Structure formats: C-alpha cells, structure tokens
Records
---
Amino acid sequence: MIKLENVSKAYRVDGRDIPALAGVSLSITAGSVFGIIGHSGAGKSTLIRLINLLERPTGGRILLDGDDVTELNASALRGLRQQVGMIFQHFNLLGSKTIGENVAFPLKIAGTLNKAQITQRVDELLALVGLSDHRDKYPAQLSGGQKQRVGIARALANRPKVLLCDEATSALDPQTTQSVLQLLLDINKQLGLTIVLITHEMDVIRTICDRVAVIDGGLIVEEGPVTQVFLHPKHPTTRRFVFEAEHIDENKQYDDYKHVEGKIVRLTFIGNSTYQPILGSVARDCAVDFSILAGRIERIKDTPCGQLTLALSGRDVDAALARFSAEGIDVEVLR
Ligand SMILES: Nc1ncnc2c1ncn2[C@@H]1O[C@H](COP(=O)(O)OP(=O)(O)OP(=O)(O)O)[C@@H](O)[C@H]1O
C-alpha cells in the first residue's frame, strides 16, 4: 500500500517558491494499477517522483507499507529504490552498453548476485519482455517499443514491489503503446506488482488502470474506479479528458437534442447487462418508443460497458425507467 498524506511540494527557484503540489492525499492498493492523469504542468511528474524520493516533499507524509519514506536514512533509501522500479518516457538506457548489460546494471549495483546468477536473471528478464534474441544489441539498434521493454526489464531486475511509469508510452505510436501496455498488464497480473503511472492520455488509463486520479494545478480534483470516472466524470477537467477521448462535443450534443421530443435519458450499462437485450423487452412491456441519440459500447480494462442516450415517449415512460433501474442499469434523466 502506498499512501500520500497531504503532500505538498514547492520548487525553490531564484529565492522564490514555485508551488507544484498543494496537499495531495492518495491511497494506492498493493497489486493494483493506478493512473494519474493531468495536463502539462499539472504536477504529475512531481507526484510520481516523490514516491521514490527522486524529489523530496515540502510537507506531508509518503508511506510505503506503513513506513514514512521521508524518514529513511541513506542505506534504507537505497533499499527503497530497489523496491520501487521506474520507467521513463525516453527510456534512459545506456547507449554504450548492450541490452543485456543495461538490464544487468541494477543487479550489479545491488551486489547481491554473483556473475552466473546475474546472467541467469538477465535471461529471465529478457524472456519476460520478449527480447531474448536482442541481448547483445545496442539500444540504438532497437525500436522505441523494444527500448521500453528493455526499460521494463531493467526496472524489474531487483524484483521491486512497485513500478512507477513516467509517461512510459508517450513517445510510442498507438500500436506499440498497446503492446507495451499489454506487457505491463501481464506483469501486473503475473507478479502482483503495483503499478503507478502518469499520463496525459485517457486511453492509457482506460486500457490498464483500476483506479485513476485526475490532477489539475497541483491538486487531485477527482479520484475513483476507472469505470466510474469514465462513465460519470464530474470535474470539468475530467469531463474534458473523457469527452476528448470519446470525441464527444457535449455542447453541440445538447443543441442537437432541442428538436427531439420525449424524455431524454442516459443509460449506463456496466458488466454483463451491456450485452443483454433489455432495451427491447422494456420498450415492449411498457409500450414506449425510443430513439437512440448517442451511444458507445466499449471495454474499460476487463469490464464491458455501454452508455446510450435515448429519447423515450409513449404510454409509461416512468415505468420503463424503473424497470431499467431494477435491472441494475444506471438511469440519468437529462431532460
Ligand atoms: N525542477 C523544477 N524546478 C522548478 N520548477 C519545477 C521543476 N519541476 C517542475 N517544476 C514546476 O512544477 C509544476 C509541475 O510540474 P510537473 O513537471 O510536475 O508537471 P507535469 O504534469 O508532469 O507536466 P509535464 O507533463 O509537462 O511534465 C510546473 O509549474 C513546473 O514548471
């Protein structure tokens, strides 16, 4: 469990304090994938770098399994860095060393394995990330996606409990992004590793995160399970991220509905109800007609979900809405 309690951070520049985080509190459950999303300058990098003390907080506490990391002495801090691996947007590989040597590097620094054990561990790690055939190549000979796989292998070398991902897929094309995210998800499942990632892309959050925090101006403005935040975004910043990702123009949509008759409702289906033929049977039973104004069906991590905006008219619209609710569908009356 990672806990941030009222953490603040200001950078001192030319004798002046530049605030970056203003009282952030978060709880990240062990074994989960936790995403932090925000625009440029929101404080994402600062926040993630506090977890392994690449930056020191100005105030508040950061607890890793109950221990306050800000109180660790130098040797305990080295231990912490081994428990918390990190990968970066631009990979940060050593260009003059081979792939195998890059992955071996943190093992040599830790100094707990002999040469043969290091070779064996590097083999295991390269197999895990699908790069066994590239051991003797140099970073410049690999694609961006392959370089990030090396970054992941290196970050996992000392069997950390936590992996921090600092915009790890931002330099990759969409297809490569998906394959790297899939690898992170496999590792999360296989090793039970906690993953904390920062991103400015809602798609990254949707693909692999269990929970998400939205950061704006150094504050967490919304936090919750990804399904909840995605389907019912509340804060204007969150709404902007979600609507951009979904190509929804909220204002235009409401304009379009001006000429539509009937009661306008939004139904949200999560899990199995997404694929049930509920709409037709409720319409028949309650003698209502519906027209579909907008809709999306998608997957948020492993959970199928859908959202439909309908105009309902006919004999018993209220009974239809009650039936939807009884079937476990979230009903919002928009007009
Ligand atoms: N080393 C530093 N010295 C001074 N100010 C800094 C430093 N690092 C970050 N800042 C400032 O702190 C604020 C938050 O920056 P941070 O890099 O954490 O945001 P971010 O959300 O990660 O943005 P980006 O995606 O652009 O990196 C910004 O105002 C930034 O200018």
---
Amino acid sequence: MPTPHIRAARGEIAPIVVMPGDPRRAARIASDYLEDAVLVTDVRGILGFTGTWQGRRVTAMASGMGGPSMTIYATELAREYGVEQIVRVGTAGAMSAGVAVSDVIIATGAHTDSGMTASRIPGVHFSHLADFGLARAAVDAAATLGEDLETPVRVHAGAVFTSDHFYLERPALTAALTAHGTLAVEMEAAALYAVGAAEGVRTLAIVTVSDHLVTGESMTAEERETRFDTAVRIALSV
Ligand SMILES: O=P(O)(O)O[C@H]1O[C@H](CO)[C@@H](O)[C@H]1O
Ligand SMILES: O=c1cc[nH]c(=O)[nH]1
C-alpha cells in the first residue's frame, strides 16, 4: 500500500533493498546490475526500481541524505512493505590515515551525533550495530571479489561516524574519533541500524570513500556517482 513517501504497491518492493543516498545512483544500480528493472516509486524524486539479480528480486531505492530521511524510508519499507534486509551503499569521508579515497568500508557499527538517537531511548547511549550475519557475509564476499579484480580495491571493516553535519569543521572531534578507531564519516548508517533494531530488519552500510578529511584528497561529483562498483557487488552478494 502506498505511504506518504513511497508510491509502490506492496508487492512491488522486494524483501531485499539496496539503498544509496543518491536517486541517480539507484537508477544506475538498476540499469547496470538488475535485470528487468521497473520504476516502482518516484515520490519527491526518491527513485526506487525493482528487478532481479542472479534470479533474486531486489529493489534499488534511494534514502536521500541524513538520518531523518533514511529513517522515514527504512521505517516505511519495514512496516508497510515487509522488507527484510536493507543494505546502504553510500559514500563517506575518510578520517583515519589507514583509509584512502576509493577504499570501501563495511560499517560494522556507527557512532553518531544525531539527536534522533538521543530521542529514541532517552538516557541511553544506544549502540548502532550492523546485522552480524550481513557484515560477516560482506567481509567474505569482499575477499572473494578481491581475487577476481585486476586492481584490487582495499576493503576495511569497522566503525564509521554518522553525522548530522556535512560542513561543520571539527578537527578535534575528528582526531578523537580517529583515536577511538573510527574509519570515516557519513550521514545515514546509524539511522539505518536504529531502524533495523527497532523494526527487526537486517541492516548493513557499505561505503566507498569519496574524500579524505585529513589529506583533502577527493573524487569528482561524477566519480562519486560511478566509482562504487565494489560496494554494490558486495551489497548484492550478501
Ligand atoms: O553518497 P551518499 O549515499 O548520499 O552518502 C553520503 O553523501 C551525502 C553527502 O554528500 C550523505 O548522504 C552522505 O552519507
Ligand atoms: O557524509 C560525508 C560523505 C562524504 N564525505 C564526507 O566528508 N562526509
């Protein structure tokens, strides 16, 4: 049944959703990876396509940017469409010196500064965790994929920082999070993991590093849209 934000009929969304932030990336995943992909929703320009990948029905749908947007779509997918698994395929800014532009991070957990977490269970510092089975499958898929690639992509597993801010400069915070093992910053993983915990949906975020907060290295806008092949392949494999 349509929701305020998704126009698809119930059966038009697959139980497995691959979810970039960017609607154009959802369209590209549908055209490059899915067979017989059909547009099933476009409310507010948030595109969703359902097709098949290796014989299994999969929906590629955007989340938009930030925790509130991700929370709306992930909650409606879980409650109204019976979605069982959501894997975010996003971009992130590296914080750690051990992570470079184009590397991929399997986000096993997500720290956050989001007010959404504080209001979800007041008084508790809620831990935002990926589904363990999905994270393990992603690590295994990355190893298998790496053997087939001419130019291997470096894949890391660890914590990211989910921030409400894209532009706020906080070098001390970046240094402290890095000193506590955080690999990169992005804007939706913690919200996705919170919905996963609340709604009983398996969730994982796999991000491609588009820029580096410390070195200043970065991808172009076009590269941000196109250079995420490894992350998508891992996401589809799990
Ligand atoms: O590339 P996506 O998936 O949108 O992810 C990152 O890019 C956006 C900011 O440019 C935020 O949504 C952030 O999380
Ligand atoms: O949220 C994001 C995404 C990419 N790069 C950043 O610095 N932040």
